[in-house]
Amino acid sequence: MAELDIADVFNAAKVLKDVARHPRLIGVTKLNPEAQVYLKPENLQHTGAFKLRGAYYKISQLTPEEKAKGVIACSAGNHAQGVALSATANGIKSLICLPAGAPISKVEATKALGAEVCMVPGVYDDAYQKAIELQKEHGYTFVHPFDDPLVIAGQGTIGLEILEEMPDVEAVIVPVGGGGLISGVAFAIKTLKPDVKVYGVQAEGAPSMADSVKKNERLHLDSVSTIADGIAVKEPGVNTFEICQKYVDEIVTVSDDEIAAAILKLIEQQKLVAEGAGAVSVAAAMFDKVPIKGKKVVCLVSGGNIDVTSLNRVITRGLVKSGRDATISINLSDKPGQLSKVCSIIGDLGANILSVQHERNSSNTQINGCTLRVEMETRNNKHISEVKKGLRDAGFDVIH
Prior knowledge:
six-stranded mixed sheet; alpha/beta; single chain; elongated; four-stranded parallel sheet
């Protein structure tokens, strides 16, 4: 890739001026009590994710000959929608290769935006290989989801908007999959204001860029597994890897439970729906994965296209992680009044019982005993500890 120029990012901003939404920063939030955390809600973007920016700018720069042949792309979903909308808006044919595991909502949304869809067994990288084959066969222009200078420049417009709205920002936290978003944002911010820290965040189950930067070489993961399907990438881009090495201060990882807790927090506190990939930046701020204490910080919420059927499971995980839902197990003597005493203690301590499971034939209990499993609504993890302590102080054998 030719050296990226800040003029490319400013040109992209001009092209996207009347095309992309430019969501204002939200804040100050209470996501981390020790920092001033603001949100850049790209989940409110057209198609529900930042990907529109890079895709549209890339397509806008094609020659008439390239436009006549059409474009092809591969994506876990968000880039697909960005390319589909951009191509349709420019009167261009688009073919999108999607991994078979892509959420149904994203597949249907891509079709609705005018693209032809090709489902490919495997994950993103498998869809990428199929797209390359079809591109060579039919002469399409390939619109890479992250490793293209024009795409990177388009994503960099987010960095310009953050600096324009908040010139005194001290740190920006950005989700990382293949690296296109953070490459553009970090390049724009560091070029214009080098003192601002830029942190990247990946899922623990897909740490391709994080591991690559640590080992100073591009690595290819054998497999990836995370609820953040939008950043489940096995290998970072050639160009994005180099840009991240040069401009990104640190790349950290967050667990699926932490991601789920961040999604839940965004829904409850900010009334924002974020997908897993979009919420990793917030998870990093919430769980102190990056040094932001006392700083003015912007978390980039990159997308909100979470499948509705997945959202319930994610919310449940988030409730458990944040201590809002807890299940405790108790070994009881099987005699009258025990269950009543347990319920009374739990109620007196302010927890709400959701369900009770009573097992007499468990191999882990004594012959004259039973195991009681109680699911409760609680305030937080400290409250759970208080309930357990109250039961133990009353003489009950709390297993966990």
